User: Which sequence fits this backbone?
């Protein structure tokens, strides 16, 4: 099929590469805010496993063509939108372009996270002689290629048989192992995507609240988590307490769901609480550090492991580390930070500072002379450190585990004080 793909989001790049890979003729028009010359250099795209290789292969084969203006496009059979919520006006402009005006039977696939009902509005702008479907973005950053090419589900919002048929054919190569389409009306698909992320965020925030209570009561929250997860009505997924979540899609979807509630005349106290809890949890490690040193933080040096909002990505959008760094710097703390991928993104936000040193190779470099170590992002390289070496490097012998990935008793047996989220252990004295 001839596909015109518009956008510069990760979902746009992934769709462009994957659709060209399976034989579709794709013309990709990146958004003007991030043309291909700039987009091809950003770390979050280059660090996505397999993605850049497939983009380059698609371009080399001629199945994928990057264009700079809509006037360069051939008449498409499918228009695929993968834009950010702030780019709704750009979608409107594209669909009213003269190249599409006199055509019939084009299928609009809206893969953007726009307000509920936006696919219908865009369809009306494009013309009712065309067809539209909502296909909400469900990619997992850090494994975008696998998410697209080996999906567990696609929410397919369609109100006519033609749109469903064309979309199924377009994505047929990725739907062979088992049926992955969940078909429903367009508005239902748009709301379902937001509702899923709202539920996941609620589970995380609830578990974080329980972890706070466990801290107060002197209970190891891991026992509580195991007991809750063993209940078949609950399960273990997204039941891990931590120092807050971030990411461009997760955070945006929560705010979008809250907006949908507000615009429909319904105020959601629950969503407000979920977002408030998450913002508070981003300061959890700082509060534990403050308590340990009785508020005397000026002149201290803290090692931070991880800046990305999740392992496997170079992005720091809404990442807990940003809130944490501001709190540390406000108290005169110097920060040594290691991350294998997100350092360029961090410097783009906070700039170069005298109270920040960054490392990308050896995580132990960040710990030399530090008073404490904070684990913020659970990159695999951090899971099994040399604890005896850390005990020698850390002046304050304090480990603050923001993801509860370490065994408290083992860390304590190595002469370090452990503080996690609802977990703690002190070194044993003979």
Assistant:
């Amino acid at each position: 099929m001839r596909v015109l793909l518009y956008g510069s989001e990760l979902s746009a790049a992934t769709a462009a590469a994957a659709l060209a890979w399976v034989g579709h003729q794709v013309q990709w028009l990146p958004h003007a805010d991030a043309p291909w010359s700039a987009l091809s250099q950003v770390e979050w795209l280059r660090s996505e496993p397999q993605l850049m290789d497939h983009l380059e292969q698609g371009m080399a084969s001629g199945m994928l063509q990057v264009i700079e203006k809509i006037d360069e496009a051939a008449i498409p059979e499918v228009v695929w939108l993968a834009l950010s919520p702030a780019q709704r006006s750009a979608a409107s402009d594209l669909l009213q372009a003269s190249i599409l005006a006199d055509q019939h039977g084009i299928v609009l696939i809206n893969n953007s996270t726009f307000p509920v009902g936006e696919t219908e509005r865009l369809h009306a702008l494009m013309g009712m002689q065309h067809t539209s479907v909502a296909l909400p973005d469900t990619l997992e950053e850090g494994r975008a290629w696998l998410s697209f090419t080996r999906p567990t589900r696609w929410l397919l919002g369609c109100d006519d048989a033609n749109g469903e048929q064309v979309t199924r054919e377009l994505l047929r190569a990725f739907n062979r192992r088992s049926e992955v389409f969940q078909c429903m009306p367009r508005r239902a698909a748009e709301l379902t995507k937001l509702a899923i992320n709202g539920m996941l965020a609620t589970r995380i925030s609830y578990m974080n609240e329980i972890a706070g209570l466990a801290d107060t009561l002197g209970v190891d929250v891991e026992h509580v988590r195991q007991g809750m997860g063993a209940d078949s009505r609950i399960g273990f997924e997204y039941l891990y307490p931590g120092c807050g979540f971030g990411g461009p899609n997760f955070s945006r979807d929560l705010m979008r769901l809250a907006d949908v509630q507000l615009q429909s005349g319904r105020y959601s106290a629950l969503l407000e609480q979920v977002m408030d809890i998450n913002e508070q949890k981003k300061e959890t490690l700082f509060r534990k550090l403050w308590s340990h040193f009785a508020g005397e933080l000026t002149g201290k040096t803290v090692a931070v492991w991880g800046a990305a909002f999740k392992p496997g990505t170079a992005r720091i959008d809404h990442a807990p580390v940003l809130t944490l760094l501001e709190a540390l710097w406000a108290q005169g703390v110097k920060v040594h930070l290691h991350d294998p991928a997100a350092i360029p993104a961090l410097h783009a936000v906070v700039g170069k500072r005298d109270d920040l040193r960054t490392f990308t190779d050896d995580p132990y470099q960040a710990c030399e002379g530090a008073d404490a170590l904070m684990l913020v992002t659970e990159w695999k390289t951090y899971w099994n450190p040399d604890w005896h070496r850390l005990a020698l490097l850390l002046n304050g012998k304090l480990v603050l585990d923001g993801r509860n990935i370490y065994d408290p008793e083992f860390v304590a047996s190595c002469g370090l004080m452990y503080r996690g989220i609802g977990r703690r252990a002190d070194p044993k004295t003979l």
